[in-house]
């Protein structure tokens, strides 16, 4: 089972019977009884709890199925407790299954979606344990969810183990706290601010390319597993973006965080045992210590930075995230001030979100250009035309790299680092002709929409950056068909950073080398939280 499904499973497992799906009428009859449960004897409470379990695990799913069936929405049958988790696992091809160089990847990486969409149509029900999700891939409905009726939908809670992985920062916040943080953090991601970071990003890239060149054999060739290198590159860029002038201290903190991530990922992989994360096992103790070290080091860094900000009020240089958060933490309005704990969580979130997504974009784009020498040459010609003799493109050069922009879009279409997202109806809502009761969860499969032949045409599974020549809005039958960074108020805050970094990195790579897939490359896209090549990406580079 892929991690995405584990994540989803987690959500179900932890949320269990507290799901707000509802049948609010029934809920309002039952809940007060349960709330005053202390008055009852243990036996009565036990009976009532059993009753609630039966309602949630047997009767409620049947009611939900009927509710949607009346509206013509079908899906695989609900199985007690597990829902469709077993079928989802069975539909996954085995990881050793041979896969050609095809870009028709949905049957492999999102097998359950591919399978049930073919049977039940674009909108269908699927059960993740006792939690139902309606899979939506109709662009008109997508527009309603993210833009027209976005106030009616919210993100679902991040389960505690996932929070430990990704931090309790912007991507998991909701309501006023989210709006406040988003407003503050956005300052760092304005294009004008990011452009000031280009020389630093260019230097990291140059250092990486120099190391590759030093590994060249006498015939001027070298094989590089690029995904590892791009992870380090993205880590450096995100460290600069978050910590700016405190880069060295920040780097040490992110190194601790990377170690902590390994332990948190391990815990995440383990079968869920309630309370397990509180047991003093060897791994848990190390993980707690690392967590404490990250927090203490960050606190120290924040104090240090506060003092230097008091002395230096100049507005020169890019605004890093730490600076904007520290300034917001000094707010005189105590309820809107960002607290030190918030800063810690935001740093964790940015580390995960900024490192793994952009590195995947770089990896897939390199693989695609290695597979398509024609587009590789077109992109290289453009880079030389625009940048001339410069070895690091300037901010003006980057804006002019149109072909490279099209290539990145096509890479994000075929291999979106984030394959899907989930939203929940906050209130009873109509979506097209669908009537969604409060609490209904929606699964929005970015990857499925990006590979839909009805939206993209018969060449949907071909690498054809030319489809973006007239802009993103004209590339498919609907402008909602392309959403690698999400849509609406909660779209990706790091989009500009990711694109600037990717353009810079690929342009510099094209200026130094030509490249092709190594004979050892195996095309095996897999979702491990993000969509990545299962066996890495070995590429042969040849000095130009
Ligand atoms: C190719 C690179 C990237 C891709 C494809 C990507 C994709 C996405 C998507 C699809 C969402 C929306 C999720 C949803 O609606 O549920 C999102 C949100 C987010 N992304 Fe990215 N992302 C990328 C790079 C980055 C970078 C570089 C950063 C940070 C430096 C970042 C930070 C975030 C954050 C914090 C959110 C949550 C925003 C909010 O809820 O207000 N992302 N990203």
Give a short overview.
It is found in: Membrane. The protein is an alpha+beta fold.
Q: Overview of this structure, please?
A:
Belongs to the cytochrome P450 family. Its main location: membrane. InterPro entries: Cyt_P450, Cyt_P450_CS, Cyt_P450_E_grp-I, Cyt_P450_sf, Cytochrome_P450_Monooxygen. This is Cytochrome P450. This protein is of the alpha+beta class. The chain is built from 22 helices and twelve strands. The strands form four sheets. Strands 1-2-8-5-3 form a five-stranded mixed β-sheet. A three-stranded antiparallel β-sheet has the order 4-12-9. The chain has a two-stranded antiparallel sheet with strand order 6-7. A hairpin with a 2-residue loop joins strand 6 and strand 7. The site of protoporphyrin IX containing FE (HEM) has 25 residues, from helix 12, helix 16 and helix 22. Residues 170-171, 182, 238, 241, 349-350, 353-354, 357-358, 361, 417-418, 421, 484-486, 490-494, 497-498 line the site of protoporphyrin IX containing FE (HEM).
Q: Keywords, please?
A:
544 residues; 3-stranded antiparallel sheet; 22 helices; 55% helix
Average pLDDT rating: 86
- Rg from alpha-carbon coordinates: 25 Å
Termini Cα gap: 43 Å
Could you say which small molecules are bound to this protein?
protoporphyrin IX containing FE
Low-confidence stretches: 1-40
| Number of continuous helical runs | 22
How many beta-strand elements? 12
What does the largest sheet look like? 5 strands, mixed
Order the strands across the largest sheet as they lie in space.
1-2-8-5-3
Give the fraction of residues assigned to helices: 55-70%
What is the 3D form? globular
Structural class: alpha+beta
> How much β-strand is present in the residues?
5-15%
């Amino acid at each position: 089972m892929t991690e995405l499904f584990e994540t989803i499973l987690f959500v179900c497992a932890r949320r269990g019977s507290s799901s707000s799906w509802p049948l609010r009428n029934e809920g309002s009859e039952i809940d007060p009884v349960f709330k005053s449960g202390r008055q009852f004897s243990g036996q009565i409470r036990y009976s009532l709890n059993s009753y609630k379990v039966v309602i949630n695990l047997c009767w409620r799913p049947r009611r939900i199925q009927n509710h949607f069936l009346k509206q013509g929405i079908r899906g695989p049958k609900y199985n007690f407790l597990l829902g469709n988790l077993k079928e989802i696992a069975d539909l996954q091809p085995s990881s050793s299954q041979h896969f050609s160089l095809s870009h028709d990847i949905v049957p492999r990486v999102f097998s359950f979606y591919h399978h049930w969409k073919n049977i039940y149509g674009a909108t269908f029900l699927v059960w993740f344990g006792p939690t139902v999700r309606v899979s939506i891939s109709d662009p008109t409905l997508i527009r309603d969810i993210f833009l027209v009726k976005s106030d009616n939908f919210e993100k679902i809670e991040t389960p505690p183990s996932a929070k430990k992985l990704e931090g309790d920062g912007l991507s998991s916040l909701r309501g006023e706290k989210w709006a406040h943080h988003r407003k503050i953090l956005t300052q760092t991601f304005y294009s004008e601010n990011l452009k000031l970071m280009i020389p630093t990003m260019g230097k990291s890239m140059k250092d990486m390319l120099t190391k590759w060149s030093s590994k060249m054999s006498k015939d001027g060739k070298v094989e590089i597993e690029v995904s590892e290198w791009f992870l380090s590159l993205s880590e450096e860029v995100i460290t600069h973006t978050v910590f700016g002038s405190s880069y060295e201290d920040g780097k040490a903190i992110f190194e601790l965080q990377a170690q902590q991530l390994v332990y948190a990922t391990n815990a995440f992989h383990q079968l869920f045992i309630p309370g397990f994360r509180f047991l003093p096992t060897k791994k848990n103790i190390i993980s707690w210590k690392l967590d404490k070290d990250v927090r203490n080091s960050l606190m120290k860094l924040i104090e240090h930075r506060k003092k230097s900000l008091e002395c230096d009020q100049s507005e020169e240089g890019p605004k890093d995230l730490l600076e904007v958060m520290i300034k917001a933490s000094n707010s005189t309005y105590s309820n809107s001030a960002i607290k030190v704990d918030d800063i810690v969580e935001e740093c964790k979130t940015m580390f995960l979100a900024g490192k793994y997504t952009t590195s995947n974009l770089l990896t897939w784009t390199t693989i695609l250009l290695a597979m398509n020498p024609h587009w590789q040459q077109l992109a290289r010609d453009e880079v030389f035309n625009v940048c001339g003799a410069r070895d690091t493109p300037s901010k003006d050069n980057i804006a002019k790299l149109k072909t490279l922009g099209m290539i990145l879009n096509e890479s994000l279409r075929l291999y979106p680092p984030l394959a899907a997202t989930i939203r929940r109806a906050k209130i009873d809502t109509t979506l097209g002709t669908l009537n969604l009761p409060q609490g209904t969860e929606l699964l929005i499969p970015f990857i499925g929409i990006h590979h839909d032949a009805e939206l993209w045409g018969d060449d949907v599974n071909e690498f054809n950056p030319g489809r973006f020549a007239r802009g993103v809005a004209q590339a498919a039958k609907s402008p909602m068909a392309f959403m690698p960074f999400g849509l609406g108020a909660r779209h990706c805050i790091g989009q500009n950073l990711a694109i600037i970094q990717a353009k810079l990195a690929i342009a510099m790579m094209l200026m130094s080398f030509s490249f092709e897939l190594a004979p050892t490359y195996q095309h095996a896209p897999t979702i491990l939280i993000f969509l990545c090549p299962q066996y890495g990406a070995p590429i042969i580079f040849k000095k130009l």
